[in-house]
Structures are given as structure tokens and as C-alpha cells.
Design brief:
Elements (H helix, E strand, L loop, with lengths): L1 H31 L24 H7 L19 E8 L8 E7 L6 E6 L5 E5 L8 E6 L8 E8 L3 E10 L2 E4 L1 E2 L2 E2 L2 E5 L3 E7 L5 E8 L4 E12 L2 E13 L4 H5 L4 E2 L7
Parallel strand pairs: 9-15, 12-16
Antiparallel strand pairs: 1-2, 2-3, 3-4, 5-6, 6-7, 7-8, 7-11, 9-10, 11-12, 12-13, 13-14, 14-15
Bound molecules: calcium ion (2 copies).
Length: 266
């Protein structure tokens, strides 16, 4: 009986300890609650004050400073004997003021000329080395995104295509853009068996597309993508693939287009 009483006492003591322990643990667990108040992390909003780093924009405007004005040059008016005159707008010196690109015939010995007349009257003129019968102005488009528009024109035409050439206005003169040491010429047009097109890509490259088919069902297509470096195109990558109608109709039919901003072929 004593042993039982003793064990009862032990049990009672144990229960008491457990009760105290529970009470303590309950107390401690309830005190844990405040720890769950990391709500202040919402003060991260203050990190949005990092926005001022976007004020780096002024440095970009500094790199696109307007060019110094060109002086001298030639009278802006076309020669009296100019024929087959075409003209198209652009900003060929990058000063945000509209300029004009003229392409005209002047008879032998140099039949075709390109002339840029800047907004303030400065003019530069070059003889076009043509690839066919007729040259025409297309207009200005900033291919490489440097803030200065390149001058696009047709330098002739083949059996089924028009031929596209480019000039850059460098050092107050027109400079023909080259490819592999020769003047760069890209065809745009389509025949039954051959298609060719040009696309100015958003990443600043120019894509030249050539496509051919023997049966009107299967088309072999090559896309050459060029970087414009100074006044030269440099091949960046070339892809070849095989397309099949009707599944690839959309791509096949788009091959022979000229897509450079809002420019259109004359
Ligand atoms: Ca201009
Ligand atoms: Ca440009």
C-alpha cells in the first residue's frame, strides 16, 4: 500500500510536472506568435526607389549627339539635264531634320547619280554603279539603329527582280555599302522558280532571302543575315532549310518581299 501510495505520489508528481510542462510549453508556444510578425518585410517597397538608376538615360543621349554641320558641298539644285528623277525622304545625317535623297539620270559618261540634300541645303552627289537599266530612290531607314538612316535605292533590275543598294552618309559624303569588297546588291522579286527578298531585322541585321523550287511544292531556302559594320555588310549567319506546300505556304509566299520599316519599292 505504501508502495502504491508512493507510486501514486510519483504519478501525481509526474502529472504535476507534465501539467507545468504543458503550461510552460503552451505559454512559450503562445509567445511564439509575435515572431510571426515579419510583416515589416513589406517595407521592401522602399527598394522600388532603385528607379533612379534608370536616370542613366542621359548618357545614351550624349552618344547620339547631332553631327557637326557639313559645309561646302555643291549647289543643291539638280543639273539642268537631269532626267528620270526620283526623290525620297530620310534623315541621312541623323540630326532629326528631314533630308532628301535624289536619284537621277545625267546621260553619258556617268548615267546615274545619287544625291543627298540635307535639311539646311548641304548637298553631296555620287555616281551610282548600276546593275541594270534604271536606278530609283527608295528612301531612308535606320537599319542598325544608330540614329542615322541609311539611304536605300534600286540600282537596276534583273529578269524578275529589282536590285537594292545602300549608301551611308559618312564624313559629309555618300559612301556605297559593300559586301566582300564589292558593292552590296540584294535582289527582291519572284519568278516561278526563284524568289528573293530583303528584310531589315529588329536586331539591326539585314536578312537576304533566296528561295528556289523545281516543282512548286518543295522549296529550298537560304537566309543570310548580315551585320552592318561601318560601310560594309559582314555575314553573321546563314541558314538553309527545305519548305513544303501547303504547310509552309506563309513562309514561302513571304520570301520575295522587301521589308524595311515603311519603305516601299518604287
Ligand atoms: Ca537630317
Ligand atoms: Ca543607321
Amino acid at each position: 500500500m505504501r508502495a502504491l501510495r508512493g507510486s501514486v505520489g510519483v504519478v501525481a508528481l509526474w502529472l504535476l510536472l507534465v501539467a507545468c510542462g504543458q503550461a510552460e510549453s503552451e505559454d512559450t508556444t503562445t509567445t511564439m506568435a509575435p515572431v510571426t510578425t515579419p510583416a515589416p518585410t513589406t517595407t521592401l517597397a522602399a527598394t522600388t526607389t532603385l528607379a533612379p538608376t534608370t536616370t542613366a538615360a542621359p548618357t545614351t543621349t550624349a552618344t547620339t549627339a547631332p553631327p557637326p554641320p557639313c559645309v561646302g558641298g555643291i549647289p543643291p539644285g539638280l543639273p539642268p539635264g537631269a532626267v528620270s528623277v526620283t526623290v525620297a525622304p530620310g534623315d541621312f545625317d541623323g540630326d532629326a531634320a528631314g533630308d532628301q535623297l535624289f536619284v537621277y539620270g545625267a546621260g553619258l559618261p556617268d548615267p546615274w547619280h545619287a544625291r543627298v540634300v540635307l535639311s539646311y541645303g548641304y548637298a553631296a552627289d555620287v555616281v551610282i554603279e548600276t546593275d541594270g537599266m534604271v536606278a530609283r530612290a527608295i528612301g531612308g531607314y535606320d537599319l542598325d539603329g544608330d540614329g542615322v538612316e541609311e539611304a536605300f535605292l534600286t540600282t537596276g533590275s534583273g529578269a524578275y527582280a529589282q536590285l537594292i543598294g545602300l549608301y551611308r552618309f559618312v564624313g559629309c559624303n555618300l559612301v556605297r555599302v559593300t559586301l566582300g569588297g564589292q558593292r552590296a546588291v540584294f535582289a527582291v522579286g519572284a519568278s516561278v522558280g526563284n524568289q528573293a527578298g530583303v528584310e531589315c531585322l529588329a536586331d539591326g541585321r539585314l536578312a537576304a532571302i533566296t528561295q528556289s523550287t523545281a516543282d512548286g511544292v518543295t522549296y529550298e531556302r537560304t537566309v543570310d543575315r548580315y551585320d552592318l559594320v561601318a560601310a560594309a555588310f559582314v555575314l553573321d549567319e546563314s541558314d538553309a532549310d527545305v519548305l513544303t506546300r501547303p504547310g509552309d505556304d506563309a513562309v514561302i509566299d513571304a520570301a520575295a518581299r522587301f521589308q524595311c520599316g515603311g519603305l516601299t519599292l518604287p
